[in-house]
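Box S2. Input/output pair 1.
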Amino acid sequence: MTKSAKIELTYAHWRFFPSWTENFEKETGDGSFDGNWNRLIRQTKDTDDKNALKRHQSFIAVALMLAERLTEYPAVERISLFGSLAKPPVLEPHPYSKRLRERGVHIFHSPKDIDLAIWFSSLDNLGAIRKMMTKIVADMAEQTSGLCDGSVELFVFDHQSGKYLGRVCHFSKCPRYANCPTQGCGTPKYLKTKKDFVFYPDAISRVNSEILFERTPTVDLPNTNLFSELPSNLPEELIEKLVDAPDIRIERIVSTGQASPPGFWYDQAESEWVVVLRGEAVLAFEDETRILKPGDYVLIPPHRKHRINATSLTEPTVWLAVFFGKKKKARSNPENC
């Protein structure tokens, strides 16, 4: 996918994202598939499969229309597509018929959401962006099955820190209610926050998303020292990307007492080598738990489930994480509309 300021909208109408073809062949066993949407739809005999593929294709077209318009705002620094729409179509047990599910019939997953992650340098234009989003959805709804205002979610991130801030509100009036039930919602205007909602960074990792636009190739740290400007208290982990190349990604992660949410496990498609440089952490696997102190490192193979049970409360825990290995099946944790 192009990372220039001009996004090729016709691309999604005819072809998959370049990273999809191999994953699709593994999923379906069709080694002859060349990534052509229309040929695949013509060759598909099942009506439900055809409808699911057409929705996937048309939802991507809407996502790229939104992304192209977003690039017109100078404060938009980066746009990524994530969630089920950022994955190649996958087969799932038949969702509409218990009888067919019991017979082992699978059909293509039909996406329900368009999830875009957007990194902003300023939040001054959220109202204008809300109007643009609403107009595109209204214009495309008649020709796009299943598309509605609630189908599109624009997730807002701070460009400098990478912190998740909230979502672009769908309501024309902000605040919507005299006493908004969520503290901080609507500050600034049209930035929606939800009580107890946690955005998992793994959802927008390189293997789980497609970068549609980058105004600059990387987000650089303020300086080149791993221990510089360490925050003492963060609402969530700080993740800063140091290197982002096709075959490797290196991140500095700073934790100030954070831990994985109850019941949540990382299950990533990449290998991860991670070392604790400062502080202390408790890393749990399904079959063991390790206490990591400065200098301790772990190599985590793809799809070995793990979670962070605890990090130091008395000082920042500084991690250096290196992600590498061939891209495999992606996953994410977007919230449904």
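Box S3. Input/output pair 2.
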Amino acid sequence: MGCRVWHALAFATTGAAALVVCGSALAQSEPRMPGHPVCRGSPAAQPALARLHEALAQARFVTYQPTSLTVMNGRVAPSNASSIRADLGVLRQRFDGLITYDAIHGNEALPALAAALKFRALIIGVWDPLDETQLAAAIAAARRFPELVTGLSLGNELLFSRRMTATGLAAAIARLRQRLPATPLSTTEPFHLFYDAAQSELLGQLDFLLVNVHPVFQPWFHQADDATAAQFVVNVLAELAARSCGPILVKETGMPTAPAEAGFSAARQASFYRELRQRLPPTSLHAFAYFAAFDAPWRAFDALAAPGAKPGVHPEEAHWGLYDGARRPKLAARELPALPER
């Protein structure tokens, strides 16, 4: 989920010109991929894509993994339906859009539970697009709940973690489109990978773009204020707009609430989201999701939780949630107005 990026990247500014950071030096924005990818989406997905546009403008999204699910070094201890029901009951007070990472390991129960609680939109993640069991579960959910499931994401940071190639991922998306032509399809990567001209074919296969934009992993972060961090996210979306075949949803952005010695706190998390809401109000073309729903203590010790990170314990990875592991809301969640019942 969280990614470490130390390349030259678009730096946040409050002016019109984006900058890049190379070590400590600033320079004008480097040349980007010219033109627009050749979009190969399915006409049959247009009604669902229209619902996604509507959801981006009107829903409040959060990324979700069940509190009862744990992963250690790739070994999954699955969730259960009663725990998912309790999770969603808490989230539904403030959120009506969900983005998941996995379609199995207990998540098979999630679409029906989300529908019963009247969530507006669900984007289902498929952790491994080459695993037929995972694909079949996602396909079944999309077919059973076509008004709820507004899209599928094939993988999370597959290219960044080198678990797939861009060519292989584009082919997997094309194969799934043949099986599920009426559902919008996407994948999720750190934003800088979509700047590469080599990703044009992959971008052309995506009906909408899911992207991870983490200011906390930029080399300038600890010297920047929260307004600068939020503006960085806005600048990245401006860069990506010409490269996307559909709307853009920032799937991961946020701030951990601990450890304090690293400069993280619940107050700073809330401050970042206040700044981001001001600078990036949702529209039918772009929005952001809150990352993540709940703290996950296991993530601090999971070697696979932060692709590209140095080996060892990463305590910040346990504290991305807007709620703690006991489902208690932190300040950032408490500042969100409750949503009316649908």
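Caption for Box S3: Confidence is low (pLDDT under 50) at residues 2-34. Residues 226-240 form the longest helix (15 residues).
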